[in-house]
Amino acid sequence: MTLLDVVIFLPLVAFLMVLFFPKESTGGIRRFSLIATTAIFLLSLGLIGPYWFSNPGKWVFETNVPWITSPAIRYHVAIDGISLWLVLLSTLLTPICVLVSWRYIQKRVKEFFAFLLLLEFGLVGVFCALDFFLFYVFWEVALVPMYFLIGVWGHERRIYAAVKFFLYTMAGSVLMLAAIIYLYTQAGGTFDYVRIVAGLQNGSIPLSKGEELVLFLAFFIAFAIKVPLFPLHTWLPDAHVEAPTAGSVMLASVMLKMGTYGLLRYCVPMFPNAARTCAGWIATLAIIGIIYGALVAMVQPNMKKLVAYSSVSHLGFVVLGIFSFTQQGFDGAVYQMLNHGVSTGALFILVGFLYERRHSLEIAAYGGVATPAPKLSTVFMITMLASIGLPMLNNFVGEYLVLQGTALVNFRWTVFAAIGVILSACYMLWLYQRVFFGRAPDDVSHPMADLDLREYAIMLPLIVLMVWMGTFTQSFLPPISASTNVILGPVDARRDVHVQHVAPGRPVIAQAKERADAR
Amino acid sequence: MPASFVPSASDYLRILPEIIMTVAGTLIMLIGPVLEKKKSGFSILTLGAFVAALASAAAANNNPGVSFSNMLIVDGFATFFRVLVIGVGILTVLSSSQYLRREHAEAGEYYALLLFSVTGQCVMATANELIMIFIGLEISSIATYVLAGYLRDDKRNNEAALKYFLLGSFATAFLLYGIAWIYGTAGSTNLGDIRTYLMTPGPQRNLVLASTSAALMFVGFAFKVSAAPFQIWAPDVYQGAPAPVTLFMSAGPKAAAFAVFLRVFMTAFEPITPRWEGFVWSSALLTMIIGNFAALTQTNIKRLLAYSSIAHAGYVMVAITAHSQIGVAAAMFYLAAYALMNIGAFAVIAHFSRQGERFVNVDDFAGLGWKQPVTAALFSIFLLSLIGVPLTGGFFGKFYIFKAALDANLIWLAVLGLLNSAVAAYYYLRIIVVMYMQEPGEATNTLPPLGAGIRTTLWAAALGTLILGIYPSLVLNFATSSSVLVK
Q1: Which one of A250, B41, B198, B270 has the lowest number of neighbouring Cβ atoms within 10 Å?
Q2: What is the pTM of this model?
């Protein structure tokens, strides 16, 4: 039993313990959830250990034990440099979400915190699972609590949003399930990620060109819905707007990463040929998403919807980075996943603060907030600048790496994607101007309260991270690069490797390398 | 072999469960008039008989083999289904007594009919021969026809029973006709003999007649398992029958009918697979589509679950289409998981509907999640399992069925089936939405607490559903080891 197993299962244990709390002791449930999630976060910091002085460059904290004997399903978990940060992101944001919901959630408190803990269990598991079946289980387990978080504690159109969210994800994931089962049969009866990827890359699991493309698409659609990639994004604005603040934060910061993580971890290394074949189309969709998301965000009258569409735009960068097949692109994509988690999560929290004060999400209901609440305005400004991509703050690094990566492959993509960066400055600054400057609407009588201690405690770690990730990238990037390098191997854009289909038994990659060397 | 028609002791031991249940049922009929006052005694007696039958069915598996001149067979497959249908009987009794008391209709006949019906299903599970299959089917069906109309003053009950009886008899006639054809062709009703006949090439082999017989028998079985295009009766009957009877019908008779379906088509008609595969393929797809899409618009929860049960029959048909050992094991596992989750769901309805089944609309469940959190949480487990969310038996069952289908290269059927299960998520979610996301209405505010019997049913079913989802190996290994039907 490794530290990772503890981090995976503690949320489940905490979830079960919350169920035994009496319904009335809301204070106790809140405190317990905060202590439990904070403890889980502190424990999860220990996962950095192996990466502290060196880069293992392989799986660490590995556990591999049989779960179900026939069909052979194993509990196989481990982390690498990519999973490490995504796990930490999940464990960091859960206690923050507990604090965010401290006063906001007044009805059905017990169930709310129980679902939040169950959600953490599913999310952490998704990023660590190395068995396809296990991955699918965690993937779906995370779906159910989020459905309830939106549907029970959301705003007016919450039921529509919750059902739409569930059905979209479900429709994508059943196709993925079919692909997983098919792979199991082809791989000779194993769900093991490491073995299947190795088998696919050395040709011992033979796939025809058509098979590879269909399997790639089955996985890709499931992940693209989750990302969400244009034109599959329509569930996202609904889900975000209707969800309670904590739901929006978990959804934007962690859950969307399930999709991009899946693309990077599964789609690219398993089906390199199909991924390379489709890269042009996917990059086009990503660029459309970047620009379309930004343009729609600009005209939103609703703050949450604005942030939601900005997510579509930001996640487009991640997908673009992945499908550039360059080291910089991959690193930038992973870095951007984390950046988006921190800064968009912070934006949703701040919008939640504003909502708690004035009970409206409409931009028109605000104005001149900077005068009565200068601290809130300052924090919002830092977050907003981070989200735009100002140098020295986190998003700049990710976006820069992605743009550099795409420039190596196709300079036109870079140009179009850079337009998205400019547009993000437009809608964010305009939002800030309308909400914090100018005059308050006439019907507002009482002044707006500034940040209190709890709200400071929520925002402080996020602000610190924004600056830290923007300046000391070396604290985060080396483990990421080491792991993305492994994934990049068979698909590197600049090596001009054309992995070819050969008769089963002949090592495909080796052959391709020979040709690359011969050039 | 010298012809000896005197049954041996082991013959009797192999049908001990049937003997116990028949004796108990007859006893209840006899002492019914005497015990007019102490009606709760019947349910205890029935439970005792079921438990004894369960134990003897499990014990019979230690000494497998054929009995009564090869007419019955006790093997792992038979044991699996005998245990399953007797288990369904136990849970039915537990969820019935409170309901019957509420409707002022607790009487011995109900329990006797239940015992007879389960006896018939056990005969079906062990039958090794077409006439025994027919007899078992009739014992089970006739008792179920009466049960469907058990509350004889209720119009809906009458309608259900009449429809079920008329259409059911018609379907049975098809089955019998099919048996006659194959007897005329192969000269035997024994499944093994028919198989040998169909496998032996020569001028005496007539595949056209055999296929006709298979088609006729398919009609009979498809009716019993409510597979398209013979599913029309199911929604009306499920909606009209008393809730505990619907609970029973959707689990026990269906599982037994699938047992004979599997046994006949995997042994006797296995040599002519290419001739029936296409029919079962289209029937499976049609069943899933009709069930799921019709369920989308239902407002009555019993009718909704009736359509859902049609859809689930479609998933099992997918496993039959795969006609492989793993397909048989998948169907067995799925039927067990399905029985548990469906019994749980109908037990909640039996509890919730109140006298005269007034509250059976989906909207009546508004706010149940906050009025009776435990009931609603258990109901949610059953619904999530019906959707097929991981860590529940329903997910693993579906996973295993579609794995069997993909192994058998039925890629389109598997993909369409999986997409169907995504559609199904919508109508199950609707119930969860009403329970947790709407304010309580009259129906939930006046809800009495759970009775002991139904509570036991719910917890047992929920526990079973979760165990099948988290540690399926227990059941799966047994199902796999007993899925070889051709000895």
Answers
A1: B41
A2: 0.88
Separation of alpha carbons B213 and B184, rounded Å:
10
User: Which positions ≥6 away from B196 have C-beta within 8 Å?
Assistant: none
The two three-digit tokens of residue B325, written as one number: 């050992």
Chain B residues closer than 8 Å to A181 by CB: 399, 402-403, 406, 414
pLDDT for position B262: 93
Measure the CA–CA gap between B190 and B177, rounded to whole angstroms.
16
Spatial distance between the Cα atoms of A319 and A261, rounded to a whole number of angstroms: 10
DSSP-derived secondary structure for B275-344: HHHHHHHHHHHHHHHHHHHHHTT--BHHHHHHHHHHHHHHHHHHHHHT-SHHHHHHHHHHHHHHHHHHHH
Q: CB-CB: which of A68, A144, A181 is closest to B384? A: A144
Taking CB atoms and an 8 Å limit, are A167 and B425 in contact across chains? yes
Rounded distance between C-alpha atoms, residue A80 and residue A82, angstroms: 5
Shortest Cα–Cα distance, B293 to chain A (Å): 15
Residues of A in contact with B480 (CB under 8 A): 70
B131 SS3 class: helix
Tokens 């502290």, residue located: A52
Contacts of A190 in chain B (CB under 8 A): none
For residue A506, what pLDDT is reported? 43
What is the Cα–Cα distance from A256 to A250, expressed in whole angstroms?
Answer: 9
Q: Please state whether beta strands A73-79 and B72-74 pair in parallel, antiparallel, or not at all (unpaired).
A: unpaired
- Number of C-alpha atoms within 13 angstroms, CB side, residue A270? 29
- Tens of pLDDT, residues B50-67: 999 999 999 988 888 888
Q: At what angle do helices A158-186 and A209-226 cross, to 10 degrees?
A: 150
CA distance A220 to chain B (A): 16
Burial category of B429 from C-beta neighbours within 10 Å (exposed 0-12, middle 13-18, buried 19 and up): buried
Could you tell me the sign of the dihedral formed by the alpha carbons of B240, B242, B243, B249, in that order?
negative
Range A245-251 average pLDDT: 89
Report the mean per-residue pLDDT for chain B. 89
Asked if B406's CB is within 8 angstroms of A163's CB, the reply is no
Each residue's pLDDT tens digit, A456-469? 888 899 999 899 98
pLDDT over 90 percentage in chain B: 49
Q: Mind listing the pLDDT tens digit for each residue in B74-98?
A: 989 999 999 999 999 999 999 988 8
pLDDT of residue B333: 93
Tens-place pLDDT, residues B109-158 = 899 999 999 999 999 999 999 999 999 999 999 999 999 988 888 888 88
Looking at residue B12, its amino acid is: Y
Q: Do A69 and B477 touch (CB under 8 A)?
A: yes
Looking at the complex, report in whole angstroms how far the Cα of residue B67 sits from the nearest Cα belonging to chain A. Answer: 32
Which DSSP category does B151 fall into?
S
Q: Rounded CA gap, B196 and B201, in Å? A: 10
Q: Which residue of A has its CA nearest to B427?
A: A163
Taking CB atoms and an 8 Å limit, are B390 and A175 in contact across chains? Answer: no
**Cβ atoms B114, B248 nearer than 8 A:** yes
Q: List CB contacts (< 8 A) between A71 and chain B.
A: 400, 403
Question: How high is the mean pLDDT of chain A?
Answer: 85
Of A306-315, B1-10, B287-296, the range with the lowest mean pLDDT is B1-10
**Cα of B437 to nearest chain A Cα, Å:** 5
Residues contacting residue A479 through CB under 8 Å, at least 6 positions apart: A51, A55, A80, A81, A84, A85
Mean pLDDT of A301-327: 89
ipTM: 0.83
Residue carrying the six token digits 């992945």 = A322
Task: Say how far apart CA B228 and CA A229 lie, in whole Å.
Answer: 38
Whole-number pLDDT of residue A80: 87
Q: Which residue has the tokens 């409510």?
A: B226
